[in-house]
């Protein structure tokens, strides 16, 4: 029987590539999405094209009831979740002076509370199985901060604290919890940046380029594999050397 992986917010971008890379590694995949659209159907087709199962589960990670329901759906179908990747995330950038309370709350509720909601529902099954991997997608701005992203940085820093605390709680059950902190990765999230902004960012990166979704997915694959069985509670940057 194949091992199974749940990736939240996996219809496009980093989440979709993580799903594809884990599918290539032989995992049966469950992808969580908010709206059924062409992006979702394409992701499902591409994952199934790797010769594994792809279950799609609807739900907004910021809503506890949604996460409770869709985790049950996956357990009913697959019996177990071996790997959880908390990837779903949003930005609502703006200087604090101008930031509306809902822009702060939406980002915290999706990125940080969403990570709690899904993990809380998955952890019991991992505890019973006495094994599991949880990989939380944080960000370098959760470590270094970034003007215009007080909400996003707070959510991503929160994910790091959550990761380390949970890693300590569940290590005795052989559940490994790590965070991945990407730098600038080319996706819809960073599409809003103008060409000259991207060039200026690239200049500040020792490897002189933005990252690709594969750069993040390959690290997640390693953290989901037997090769990383002595690594827990860590934050691993994948940022071309931006932060060191
Ligand atoms: P995208 O915007 O391309 O994809 C985000 C995904 O998350 C979409 O599938 C989106 O679905 C989903 N999502 C958003 N909110 C929710 C929700 N409430 N419930 C379920 N799904 C949701 O972003 P990226 O691929 O770039 O980002 C993926 C992760 O990586 C995020 O956590 C992001 O913060 C992090 N990251 C990205 C970096 C980058 O440079 N791109 C850098 C550092 C971290 P929908 O279509 O419904 O919105």
Descriptive key words:
244 residues; alpha/beta; Rossmann fold; seven-stranded parallel sheet; 9 helices; 15% strand; globular; binds NADPH dihydro-nicotinamide-adenine-dinucleotide phosphate
Task: Tell me about this structure.
By secondary structure, the protein is of the alpha/beta class. The protein has one domain (4-238): Rossmann fold (3-Layer(aba) Sandwich), CATH 3.40.50. The chain is built from nine helices and seven strands. The chain has helices at residues 13-24, 38-48, 64-78, 101-129, 141-144, 150-170, 188-191, 195-204, 213-223, and strands at residues 4-7, 28-33, 54-58, 83-86, 132-137, 175-182, 235-238. The protein has a seven-stranded parallel sheet, with helices on both faces. Helix 2 (38-48) links the parallel strand 2 and strand 3. Helix 1 runs parallel beside helix 2 (38-48), helix 3 (64-78) packs parallel to helix 4 (101-129) and helix 4 (101-129) runs parallel beside helix 6. The longest helix has 29 residues, at 101-129. The radius of gyration is 17 Å and the shape is globular. The termini are far apart. The mean pLDDT is 97. NADPH dihydro-nicotinamide-adenine-dinucleotide phosphate is lined by residues 8-9, 11-15, 32, 34-35, 60-62, 87-90, 110, 114, 137, 139, 182, 184-185, 187-190. Residues 8-9, 11-15, 32, 34-35, 60-62, 87-90, 110, 114, 137, 139, 182, 184-185, 187-190 line the site of NADPH dihydro-nicotinamide-adenine-dinucleotide phosphate.
């Amino acid at each position: 029987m194949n091992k199974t992986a749940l990736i939240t917010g996996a219809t496009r971008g980093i989440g979709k590539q993580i799903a594809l890379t884990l599918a290539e590694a032989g995992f049966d995949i469950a992808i969580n999405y908010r709206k059924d659209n062409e992006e979702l159907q394409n992701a499902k087709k591409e994952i199934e094209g790797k010769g594994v199962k792809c279950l799609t589960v609807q739900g907004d990670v910021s809503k506890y009831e949604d996460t409770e329901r869709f985790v049950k759906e996956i357990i009913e179908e697959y019996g177990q979740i071996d790997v959880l990747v908390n990837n779903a995330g949003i930005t609502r950038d703006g200087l604090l002076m101008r930031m509306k309370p809902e822009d702060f709350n939406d980002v915290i509720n999706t990125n940080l509370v969403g990570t709690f909601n899904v993990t809380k529902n998955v952890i019991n099954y991992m505890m019973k199985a006495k094994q599991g991997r949880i990989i939380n997608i944080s960000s370098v701005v959760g470590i270094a901060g970034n003007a215009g992203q007080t909400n996003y940085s707070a959510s991503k820093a929160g994910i790091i604290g959550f990761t380390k605390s949970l890693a300590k709680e569940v290590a005795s059950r052989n559940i490994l919890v790590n965070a991945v902190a990407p730098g600038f990765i080319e996706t819809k999230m960073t599409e809003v940046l103008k060409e000259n902004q991207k060039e200026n960012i690239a200049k500040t990166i020792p490897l002189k380029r933005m990252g690709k979704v594969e750069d993040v997915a390959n690290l997640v694959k390693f953290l989901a594999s037997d090769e990383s069985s002595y690594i827990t509670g860590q934050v691993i940057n994948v940022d071309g050397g931006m932060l060191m």
